[in-house]
Each structure stands twice: as C-alpha cells, then as structure tokens.
Amino acid sequence: MKVLAENRRARYDYEILEKFEAGVVLAGYEVKSIKLGRVSLGGSYVVFKDEEPFLLNANIPPYQPKNTPKDYDPTRLRKLLLNKDEIKYLIGKSQQKGLTLVPLRMYTKGGKIKLEVGVARGMKKASKKEILKKRDIDREIDRELKARG
Q1: Mind listing the pLDDT tens digit for each residue in 94-148?
Q2: Rounded to whole angstroms, what are the CA distances from 12 to 65, 81, 83?
Q3: Of 63, 70, 56, which is closest to residue 24 (Cα–Cα)?
Q4: Looking at the domain assignment, is residue 87 inside a domain?
Q5: Which neighbouring-strand residues pair with 119?
Q6: How many CB atoms lie within 10 A of CB 142?
Q7: Counting C-beta atoms within 10 Å of the first and last residue's C-beta, which end of the chain has fewer, N or C?
C-alpha cells in the first residue's frame, strides 16, 4: 500500500471518529497524475447528491496538459464507490450536527486507487492547544527516559 497523498490538516482541524475506504471514479489521465503524487486533498470534503457520495475540491492537475481535454477541471466532482450500507450510514452521520466527512489520504491497493474517508468532528482552538501541550509533555518525558536509560 503506497500512500499517494495525505490530508494532514484534517487530523489537526478535526477529531476523526471513524474511517472508511472508498474507491474513486477517475479518468485515465487523472490516474497517471495521482500515481505520480500530483494530487492535493487540502480543503476537500465529501458531499452527497441524490444519495451518492462525491469528492469535492480535490485538486488533480492534468498528467500532460497538452493532451488533456480543453474542458478539464482539476477540482471537479469525483464519485466515490462504497457499499449501500456504508452510504446509508454515512448519510446519517453527515446529517448529524457537528459531524462532517473528510478525505484523509489517497493510496493504492491492489492496483486500484482508494480514498480513506473519515467521519470527523471539528475541534475548537482550546482543545487543539491541549493536544499540542500534551504532545510536548510526552516528548519531554520520552527524552528524559532515554537520557536515563
């Protein structure tokens, strides 16, 4: 499993409650571009239209700009492939107050490109600061233990 893109900002801005694996419907030139690592998940999210999940605002630049169609939009809607039960569950979760669906990372699995989608709750500034303080304290404790042992 090779990670092609990661949305690090999502882990900072949101508390990830659950994760799901989804396939993505792509054009051939998009697949080539993604496999070269030329994809950005920053600012993207998952929306539902007619009870079908779509990835919105994921930026996939053209593989060869001269050979791509003239009307190509790098941030177009891309359909996500999930089971019916997962789709129903995610629709319910996305309608709950305070929960959203965020793409976490894009990777290859068995020659196919997959997207890890997280059910997330937005974090407040105070809780972000607490997490950073806790991380710093844990890092200092680890340093002390390594120095003594």
Answers
A1: 888 888 899 999 999 998 999 999 998 887 777 778 888 888 899 999 998 888 8
A2: 33, 26, 28
A3: 56
A4: yes
A5: 18, 101
A6: 10
A7: C
* CA 93 from centre of chain: 17
Residue type, 94: S
Cα–Cα distance for residue pair 34/11, rounded to 1 Å: 21
Q: Left if phi > 0, otherwise alpha if psi is -120 to 50, otherwise beta: which for 29?
A: alpha
146: in domain: no
Give domain status of residue 133, yes or no: no
Cβ atoms within 10 Å of 52's Cβ, excluding its own: 14
CB half-sphere exposure, 140, CA atoms < 13 A: 6
Calculate the average pLDDT of the chain. Answer: 88
- What is the C-alpha to C-alpha distance for residues 39 and 35, in angstroms, rounded to an integer? 9
Q: Which DSSP string corresponds to 60-101? A: ---SSGGGS-TT--TT--EEEE--HHHHHHHHHHHHSTTEEE
Beta strands in the chain (DSSP E): 2-6, 14-24, 45-49, 52-56, 78-81, 99-109, 112-122
Provide mean pLDDT across the span 76-97.
Answer: 91
